[in-house]
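Risk mitigation, structural track. In case the binding assays with pyridoxal-5'-phosphate fail to produce interpretable data, a predicted complex structure has been prepared as a fallback.
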Amino acid sequence: MLIEERIEVVKNNIEQSAKLSGRTSKDISLIAVSKTIDIETVKEVHKLGINDFGENKPQELRDKIPEIPEASWHMIGRLQSNKIKYVVGKTKLIQSVDNLELMQKINDFAIKTGVVQDILIQVNMSKEIQKAGIDENDIDRILLEACSMKNIKVKGLMTIGSAFMTEYELEKMFEKCNNIFVDKKQKKYDNIDMEYLSMGMSGDYMTAIRCGSNMVRIGSGIFGPRNYNI
Ligand SMILES: *Cc1c(COP(=O)(O)O)cnc(C)c1O
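Fallback model:
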C-alpha cells in the first residue's frame, strides 16, 4: 500500500472510532511516529498534510527537527537526563515523563533556557515491569510536585497498551486511564491543564479512541513495517 493510502485508512478509522464515542476526527490528534524512518519519507508525509511527528530517541529528534522545523515534534520514548537538551524547548510535547527527577531536570533546563515546556505524564497502566511509566497510584504525587514547577506545564497523560492483552483487557485498561484523566482534569490543579490523553498505537488506536483517547501515536500504520522493532 502507498503511504497516502495508509493515511486515508488511518483517518477513516479515526473518524469511525471518534463517532462511536460521540466525537469527530477533529477531536483526535494524530501523531505520525517516524522513529527509524528516513527524513525524505517523513518530509513526504509532512507534505501530505501530517504536521505532528513522534520520535523515541532524543538524538533522532535533534537531527530531524531542523529538517522540518515547521512541524510539531513529540518525544515519546525513554529520556535520560543528559539528553534533555535535545528536546526541551524544541518539542511540542515530551510525552514520556515518568519520574519526578526527570520532571525536575526538564524544569531546571527550561528555566535556564527561558522556555516553558509542555509535558505528559506517562503512566504504566499495564503494569508490565519492562514498560516505562509511573504507577497510577503515584499520579497525584507527581501532579502536586508539578504545580510549583513554573517552566513546565502538564498537559495530560500518556500510556501504552500491551501486546499481550485481549481486546477486552485493553478496553478495560484504556477506560481506566480515561477515568483517571477525567478525574485529574476535574481537580484543576495549579499549572496543570489536562488537555491530552495520548493512548493508542497502530494495533490498538481504534479501541483507545472508543475509550476516550484524544491523541494517537501511529507508526507502522502510516509508514509501513519498520526494519527493526523499537
Ligand atoms: C513506536 C511507538 C509507537 C508507534 O508504534 P506502531 O505500533 O508502529 O504504531 C507509539 N508509541 C510509542 C511510545 C512508541 O514507542
